[in-house]
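User: quick one
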Amino acid sequence: MDLRELYQDIILDHGRHPRNFRAIDGATHTAQGYNPLCGDRVTIYLTLDGDHIADVAFQGRGCAISTAAASLMTEVLKGKTIAEAEALFAHFHARVTGGEDGPLAEPLAVEMERLEPLTGVKAYPARVKCATLSWHALEAALKGGGGAPVKTE
Amino acid sequence: MTTASPRLLQPERDRLPGGFDPRRLRSEFPIFANNPELAFLDSGASAQKPASVIDRIADYYRTDYANVHRGVYRLSARSTELFEEARQKVQRFLNAADPREIVFVRGATEAINLVAQSWGGAFLEAGDEVLISELEHHSNIVPWQLLRDRIGFRLVVAPIDATGGLDLAAFTTCLSPRTRLVAITHLANATGALVPIETVVELAHRAGAKVLVDGCQAAPRLNVDVQALDCDFYAFSGHKTYGPTGIGVLWGRYELLAAMPPWQGGGEMILNVTFEKTQYQEPPHRFEAGTPDISGAIGLGAALDFIEGLGRDNILEHEEALTGYGIDRLSRIPGLRLIGAGQRRLGILSFDLEGVHPHDLATVLDRHHVAVRAGHHCAQPLLEKLGYPATTRASLGVYNDESDIDKLAAAIEAGRELFA
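Assistant: Done. Structure below.
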């Protein structure tokens, strides 16, 4: 597999210039993710309006993959319901680990396509956790967060 | 046993004056025949194995295997003899005074835990101090924290100086009449900083403290002589010394080992067992409960034969020359910063490439068949102090030469372009 299949332009771009890279004052939910393997840390901020994600952002330090993954995640999640976010994570997780992903409703399938460039990590087992770190932190934030950072190990 | 079969005699390798040829040496490591493009620069994590080690282990299982120190039958006696012969090889490797000072363990981590739990558990009290340094691997930090939480002594940390080496002046002020033990690395795994261990031992002894040296990175590179170092405990791992995984060594002064209680109970470590009272073996068997890693010890013996065959001065000369070449070559890459290793760096080049995360860089290097380690190298406090959450680390072995460094440099340049 060519390196550029992993490091596609969209990944390099989001890695260099992450979107929604900020803290949210008065976020309703936050959680930290930590990858003990490389020391990467990410904090996810969420503002929920009912069961809709009104705003989502992140801060932290990480490699190009984990930064791009967090950046793309915040872009696709804005305006989604919690159930939709969970469905996207399940699909994304299946796509990057080579697992089974069932059918996805049309509007979500479009968002899933935006995450497609990240699925190159499938060929790099040691890097899968870089792509899923922010999603694990998101899941922890939705479940209440605030506790110990979720770890990828 | 009166005659050894000729097969078991180690061929005497001629000393190679003025160094050796890593290219030719590479043919003795089957991994390179199976991965011909590989530039293996991760020996600091674990070294590759020469055919002599691999074959010795297989041979032992094929021809001489039985449990040790148990059977009255000849095969068991033969196996015991080979196991104890390996102990003597370690004794010679460290220039220890007595083979009974060599305790076989799983690795340096277990060796340090053994000293912490047995010696520390018996002799440390609340109010005492154990002095470590900022250069330590987690395996020389966490065992002391575990014990501290149980006993309540103070864990003191000697800092590094601005160049990344041990700050000897600060180290001296960290010593106090309450310092019972100095537990310190010989060669820092994350940065390659060489610690002036003779001076450290002298200062520590003057303060009345014992000294445990973590020799993981030093044992494969330096001519370690525990009597000349005058330390009290020395630990190293077999797998970083071209030997198998699962075996390591704790050397300790005999009188210290003899005063230490067992740390694990089981077979092999006992003299006599009743339900009321058990008498323990003398060292080293007191600390080797259960069936040991017999093939691992014999494989380690073969690895030490391999090292001695190359000549330890030759290895040091080779590593120093290649380290120098690496420093020179990498320093010319724009945006690359070598992470400080103080006055003297040996065998390990840890660096940061501006704007490129070590894990991204390591993935790029891997695609160029260059194997390095990226991350915190199990030395998080040191990297925190140096200001990096992670670095990329190239570490050298006897099979590396300038072409590996050139490949590394070219691959770093490719990474720099990709992420520019």
